[in-house]
Design brief:
Order of helices and strands: HEEEHEE
Helix content: 25-40%
Strand content: over 45%
Distance between the termini: 88 Å
Largest sheet: 5 strands, antiparallel
Shape: rod-shaped
């Protein structure tokens, strides 16, 4: 009898895992630039950049949503990937969340154009 109950629980748990499968969702954001560029600055494209950083994960809980900290992490990784860059323009940020009961994990991708920005010293007319 005890063995029958354990077998039934194992089969039930296996069925739940099989029927739920791996679920995923994503959020895509297109933006013109990662940081403010000054009106009297010279922005020069350096080249394309594409980075991926791991996001939050958990056990029996969904991953946290995108926060300003996760944005700053992926921006910093993108700028670090291209020497001389200090700005990313025309970029796409993709947040992907995966779930395979009871585990959840996520990742954040960014692809765009790395640029260097030199702020001019010319006095602007009013």
């Amino acid at each position: 009898m005890k063995m029958h109950v354990i077998t039934s629980l194992c089969v039930g748990l296996g069925a739940v895992l099989a029927f739920t499968g791996c679920q995923s969702s994503q959020y895509i954001d297109h933006s013109p630039q990662t940081y403010f560029d000054f009106p009297n600055s010279n922005v020069k494209p350096i080249g394309p950049v594409k980075v991926e950083v791991p996001g939050p994960s958990g056990f029996f809980k969904p991953p946290d949503m995108i926060t300003s900290d996760s944005d700053q992490t992926v921006y910093a990784a993108a700028i670090k990937a291209q020497p001389g860059a200090n700005l990313i323009v025309n970029y796409t940020k993709i947040y992907k969340a995966y779930s395979f009961f009871p585990f959840t994990w996520s990742k954040l991708q960014l692809q765009g154009t790395a640029c260097s920005m030199d702020v001019g010293t010319q006095v602007l007319k009013q």
